[in-house]
Structures are given as C-alpha cells and as structure tokens.
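lol forgot to send this yesterday, sorry. struct tokens for the thing we talked abt
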C-alpha cells in the first residue's frame, strides 16, 4: 500500500511523532493506522527506557488553587518550551482538582484521555527528552502561593505554597519570599525530627571536644550551637528578611498570623 503525505500528517497529528518516524511506522504497519500508532507507542517507550538513567534536573514549577507542582526536564531549553509549560498548567490544575499529594499520587490523577503520567510520557516521546513529575503538594486550608523566576527568559523555577491562619496576606507574602530565599525546612523547632536534633547535638559536642573546650561548658556550647541550627532550619526563628531586627515568628505573632505548614519546590532540587 502506498503511503501518502496525508497519511503521514494524520499519524503525526495523532501521536506527535516526527515525520520520518511516522512514515517508517506506517510502512512497517503496511498502511494500518491503528497498528502504526501501536508501533510508535512501543518505539516511544523504548526511547524513554534509554533515557531513564538521565536526570530531569531542570524544569519548572506551576501552581493552581491550593496546589503546587515541580515538573522536571533535562534542559532549560525544554523548560521554556510552550508545550511543556502548557502541560505543567494542565497537570497542576488536575492535581488541584484531585487534591493529590506526592509524585506517585499526582501521576495517577486522570488527565484528558489518560493520566498525568501518560500525558507526561507522551510529551517526553515527542520532545525526545526525559520529563518527570518530581513532586506535588496540595493543602486544604487558607493558602498563599509565590512563584519565582531565576531568569527573565525562563518560567518560574522556584515555588512556595504557604498554609496559614490569620488576615494579613501581605505579611504572608513576605514570608513566602523569605521561604523562597532562605530555604527553611520546618515551621518551628518542634517540627524538627528528634533524630536530626540528636545528630546535630552529637556533632556540636564532638566539634567542641575537638576544639579543646572544657568539659564543664560542653552542655552550654551544644545548646548554643543547636540554637544556631534552629535559626537556619526553622522559619519562625529566622531573622526576617523584611525586618532583620525581628524574627519571622515575632512578625507573625504581632499580626496574629500562624503558618501551619509550607512547601518549597525548586527545579533542579
């Protein structure tokens, strides 16, 4: 059966395959359109398998409603691709509607005629680059979102989602900026896992001994160094970027605002 240009175009439009791949699949399928689609799916999966050991270490973040996602790509060239950005917007809208948390749950969310994962795989096959949903976060309470561009020629690559109670949204926005730039890991020290605190205390003690500090003041030294650790990793104990004479916690308390939790997603992380 002769393969026409119209046949090739129809297959390309349906699958997003390149012209030569589409023509080859139609030839192999002897003009059978459905069989050609199957062939392209198989070869597409094979190509994806070859890319599986590559890293989707670039990409973008996107937000919708009370949800935030990180969609990874291998290069910033793809990160600013219009189809990639459009897919991220569709994915985060579907994730928000489902209230999904984590990459596994988000990948299983229904999207168009398949799932989030199948939509990402389809675009990966078309683009020829590894794409991956790195993470997804959905909250239920009152939220504020901030998206940050690292470069003006790229879409947002850092995203912050803050869940809070209170009325001062301008303050919450400044807190979101704080999270984006200072990268705290927890809201308050009570949220820090005990094993992490124990590890930091052990390191602080061993370091003090190595420095020759007197045994009788070790506890005080460990306490002081743990205080510095909490300032680094706990949001409310960080000096506020907007007012370095106060901590974030002091500003929140004065405004009657409580940050219940937050997420920071970053392309490449």
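and heres what i got for the seq, position by position
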């Amino acid at each position: 059966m002769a393969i026409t240009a119209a046949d090739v175009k129809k297959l390309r439009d349906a699958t997003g395959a390149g012209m030569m791949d589409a023509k080859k699949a139609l030839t192999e399928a002897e003009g059978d359109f459905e069989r050609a689609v199957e062939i392209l799916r198989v070869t597409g999966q094979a190509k994806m398998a070859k890319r599986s050991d590559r890293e989707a270490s670039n990409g973008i973040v996107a937000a919708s409603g009370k949800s935030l996602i990180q969609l990874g790509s291998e290069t910033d060239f793809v990160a600013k691709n219009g189809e990639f950005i459009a897919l991220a917007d569709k994915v985060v809208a579907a994730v928000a509607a489902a209230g999904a948390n984590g990459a596994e749950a988000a990948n299983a969310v229904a999207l168009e005629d398949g799932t989030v994962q199948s939509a990402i795989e389809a675009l990966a096959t078309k683009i020829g680059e590894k794409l991956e949903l790195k993470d997804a976060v959905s909250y239920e309470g009152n939220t504020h979102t901030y998206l940050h561009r690292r470069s003006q020629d790229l879409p947002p690559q850092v995203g912050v989602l803050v869940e809070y109670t209170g009325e001062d949204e301008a303050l919450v926005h400044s807190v979101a900026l704080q999270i984006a730039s200072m990268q705290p890991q927890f809201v308050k020290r009570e949220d820090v896992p005990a094993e992490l605190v124990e590890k930091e205390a052990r390191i602080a003690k061993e370091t003090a001994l190595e420095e020759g500090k007197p045994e009788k003041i070790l506890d005080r030294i460990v306490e002081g160094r743990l205080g510095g650790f909490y300032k680094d990793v706990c949001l409310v104990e960080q000096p506020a970027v907007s007012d370095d004479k106060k901590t974030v916690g002091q500003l929140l308390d004065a405004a009657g605002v409580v940050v219940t939790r937050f997420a920071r997603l970053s392309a490449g992380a």
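The longest helix spans residues 33-51. anyway ping me if u want another try
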